[in-house]
């Protein structure tokens, strides 16, 4: 009789297969897949991961309710203990409350500009940068769970992590170990399964906290260390372990940028790296049975589509603005506008700006400015970052110098955790979620002091025509300034409920009902305090 298993739709079920025949090098000796066939005849070929010794394990998250049969497929077809093992599975509906599971897999929305779950529920990407969170620099479970709960409470729903092959260090730097050591042997012949077992606990906890893991497979320059064949093995292991969870794949960080001490560093992207990463991207797409979203994390001001030779490997695009504080905003906006105009249409989001309190000119107001100008200019989301948090500095474990010889920051992750910018971006997301933000479009023609890539101090506007208008302005109007802010295009003598919203404190300052003039214009009152403000106009029907 074949095995009979019970599972839940979208939830990972796991079991193993042990080879009766020993292999001297089991990781490289064979590949084992499990073919699942639904009663509707749809199939999913799911890779297994090597669990150590002579064992391979499969994780399967049933995409549909109903009955499945399954069959193992081993590259060593002569091994009867692994090949052609059969069973059956019935999957019941998911009835839990986890937001990442209750609505089906995350997809690109029908508009091709934003994200939504399979059932159409919109998803606003608010990420945090935890590059080193799978290393023991962040103590499991106490510290990891504490930070996850903090970010969940503040409204974050994405965490960007690196799967062991970390940035800003040479290979096998001791700062990259977890409690079991490094993810790979030093000759890159085999993974260390124990490393990934401990990483599993962290990824699972993120999902439990409604935090979507955006898994960066490695930093780009590791491709020269491993080579394409071993990098594909790396990715097969990641897909087998974590593809059954609600995740997003990021092929590499700073995908085509050479290593910091490479002779090519500083001369631009490496085209050989770019081409090889495209090959790996196609491999990831072919190997992942769940078709999780795929992207790349680019180098500064070189968006993803400029770093690959075939953008079909990507579902959406990321943008890194660099680490120049206010000076990076103009470049960010210019690149954002440039990439949004490209075909095919795909979502684009800003996934790295100058981390809060890193370098001399990146305080909370820079985070707010970047968020609001990016979103109102069409970004599908935003990823925050804080100095000290991305590398998990502590008093006992400071980061030290990067390969270029400079130290980014001496701030600890505990100090970074309470920086105001992280709280304030959570406020911003909450404000947007009062409205159908996914329907927003640029309404820059409605503001008098136009903000754009050449003037980030101007006004930025977006909304739903005839329903709601949101305007962000970095600079308040001084009483002696005769050039007052005007909002236009409101319709002649049309009534709106208006309020200022304080992006620092999440406070509404009600302006009551306002009425546009005969030409559809409204003169914006003086702001309550001299800081950046958001103006909201809700049309009264």
Task: Give an overview of the whole structure.
The protein is of the alpha/beta class and 541 residues long. It has 3 domains: 3-92, Sandwich (Immunoglobulin-like); 106-435, Glycosidases (TIM Barrel, Alpha-Beta Barrel); 441-539, Sandwich (Hypothetical Protein Tm1070, Chain: A). 23% of the residues lie in helices and 26% in strands. It has 11 helices and 27 strands. The chain has helices at 26-29, 99-102, 142-153, 193-208, 222-242, 271-287, 304-307, 327-340, 364-376, 413-417, 420-432; strands at residues 3-8, 13-18, 32-38, 43-47, 49-52, 55-60, 66-74, 86-92, 106-108, 115-117, 122-123, 125-129, 158-162, 212-216, 248-253, 294-297, 317-320, 348-352, 381-384, 441-442, 459-464, 468-473, 486-487, 495-502, 507-515, 522-523, 533-539. Strands 16-15-14-13-12-19 form a 6-stranded parallel β-sheet. The chain has a 6-stranded antiparallel β-sheet with strand order 20-21-22-27-24-25, with helices on one face. The longest helix has 21 residues, at 222-242. The N and C termini lie far apart (66 Å).
Apparent shape: globular
CATH level 1 class label of the largest domain: Alpha Beta
Question: Order of strands across the biggest sheet?
Answer: 16-15-14-13-12-19
What's the tally of helices?
Answer: 11
Query: Unreliable runs, pLDDT <50, ≥5 residues?
Result: none
């Amino acid at each position: 009789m074949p095995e009979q298993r019970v599972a839940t739709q979208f939830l990972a079920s796991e079991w193993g297969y042990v080879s009766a025949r020993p292999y001297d090098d089991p990781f490289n000796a064979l590949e084992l897949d499990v073919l699942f066939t639904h009663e509707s005849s749809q199939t999913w070929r799911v890779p297994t991961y090597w669990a150590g010794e002579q064992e391979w394990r499969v994780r399967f998250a049933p995409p549909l309710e109903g009955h499945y049969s399954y069959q193992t497929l081993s590259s060593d077809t002569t091994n009867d203990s692994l090949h052609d093992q059969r069973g059956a599975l019935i999957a019941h509906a998911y009835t839990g409350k986890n937001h990442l599971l209750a609505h089906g897999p995350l997809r690109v929305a029908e508009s091709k500009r934003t994200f939504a779950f399979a059932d159409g529920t919109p998803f606003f990407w608010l990420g945090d940068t935890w590059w080193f969170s799978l290393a023991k620099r962040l103590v499991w479970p106490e510290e990891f769970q504490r930070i996850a709960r903090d970010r969940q409470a503040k409204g974050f729903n994405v965490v960007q992590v690196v799967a062991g092959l970390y940035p800003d260090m040479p290979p096998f730097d001791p700062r990259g170990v977890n409690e079991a050591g490094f993810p790979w042997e030093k000759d890159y012949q085999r993974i260390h399964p124990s490393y990934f077992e401990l990483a599993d606990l962290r990824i699972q906890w993120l999902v439990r906290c409604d935090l979507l893991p955006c898994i960066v497979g490695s930093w780009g320059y590791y491709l020269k260390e491993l080579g394409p064949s071993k990098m594909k093995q790396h990715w097969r292991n990641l897909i087998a372990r974590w593809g059954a969870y609600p995740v997003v794949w990021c092929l590499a960080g700073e995908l085509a940028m050479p290593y910091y001490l490479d002779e090519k560093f500083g001369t631009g992207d490496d085209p050989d790296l770019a081409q090889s990463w495209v090959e790996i991207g196609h491999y990831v797409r072919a190997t992942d049975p769940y078709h999780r979203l795929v992207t790349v994390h680019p180098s500064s001001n070189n968006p993803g589509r400029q770093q690959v030779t075939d953008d079909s490997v990507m579902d959406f695009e990321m943008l890194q603005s660099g680490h120049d504080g206010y000076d990076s905003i103009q470049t960010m906006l210019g690149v954002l506008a440039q990439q949004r105009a490209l075909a095919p249409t795909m979502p684009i989001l800003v996934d790295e700006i100058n981390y809060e309190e890193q370098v001399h000119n990146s305080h909370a107001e820079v985070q707010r400015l970047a968020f609001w100008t990016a979103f109102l200019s069409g970004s599908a989301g935003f990823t925050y970052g804080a100095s000290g948090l991305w590398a998990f500095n502590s008093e006992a474990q400071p980061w030290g110098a990067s390969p270029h010889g400079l130290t980014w920051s001496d701030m600890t992750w505990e100090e970074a955790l309470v920086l105001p910018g992280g709280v304030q971006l959570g406020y911003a997301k909450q404000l947007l979620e009062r409205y159908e933000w996914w329907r927003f479009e640029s309404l820059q023609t409605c503001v008098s002091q136009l903000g754009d890539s050449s003037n980030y101090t101007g006004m930025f506007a977006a909304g739903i025509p005839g329903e709601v208008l949101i305007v962000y302005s970095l600079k308040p109007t001084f009483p002696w300034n005769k050039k007052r802010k005007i909002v236009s295009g409101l319709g002649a003598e049309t009534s709106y409920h208006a309020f200022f919203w304080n992006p620092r404190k999440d406070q509404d300052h009600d302006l009551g009902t306002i009425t546009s003039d005969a030409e559809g214009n409204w003169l914006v009152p003086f702001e309550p305090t001299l800081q950046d403000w958001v103006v909201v106009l809700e049309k009264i029907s």
